[in-house]
Specification:
This protein is an alpha/beta fold. The protein is 25% helix and 30% strand. The protein is built from 6 helices and 10 strands; from the N terminus they run ββααβαββαβαββββα.
């Protein structure tokens, strides 16, 4: 079954961007050749989910080229967004469980990447629909910004894999424990 994976870079103090949605801090730390190659991660992705802010950031910063052209994308928004006809994306407003089901169906057995932002990923975690976190923690502190995963309840994780990169970044893959599993196994 498809997993919903939140694959993101964050600062040491838990932010994915500055308050102004800037990522300059990230570009100061190139991942290096010992990082998990993006293409290796992406080949297992069959659909994406993102919030409207992330979509707008991508459109502003991707030099006019939609980076997820070969797979369907679901953009969460209550606003009318302009989606160009050559982009394989739909704007959707529904609860996380229904969106997750639609994205899994569209992914055709592959995983679903929750691109961001943090509030979008948190809504799926709070609904019990997020199965895995893949966070690359970059050695920088911002002091404030957009939180990596601002959940409304405790989310318990089991570390799956962790690697320290030569750049000083740390790649961590964590599986999310469902609360039902916790009560049965406790």
């Amino acid at each position: 079954m498809s997993k919903l994976i939140y694959y993101v870079a964050a600062t040491m103090d838990g932010y994915i961007a500055t308050k102004n949605h800037e990522l300059g801090w990230l570009y100061d730390y190139p991942p290096g050749d010992d990082a998990t190659p993006y293409d290796e991660f992406y080949q297992n992705i069959g659909a994406t989910i993102m919030g409207a802010g992330t979509y707008e950031w991508i459109m502003k910063n991707a030099a006019g080229e939609w980076p997820y052209q070969n797979i369907p994308s679901f953009i969460l928004s209550s606003r009318n967004l302009t989606i160009f006809s050559d982009i394989n994306a739909v704007v959707i407003q529904d609860n996380p469980k229904n969106i997750a089901a639609k994205a899994r169906d569209a992914a055709k057995g592959k995983d679903v990447w929750i691109i961001g932002g943090g509030k979008t990923a948190a809504s799926f975690a709070d609904a019990g629909e997020l199965q895995q976190l893949f966070i690359t923690t970059v050695p920088v502190f911002l002091g404030s910004g957009i939180p990596v995963l601002p959940v409304n309840q405790a989310i318990h994780v089991t570390p799956n894999k962790q690697r320290c990169l030569r750049s000083g970044a740390i790649e961590t893959i964590m599986d999310i424990k469902l609360m039902k599993q916790l009560s049965v196994n406790s």
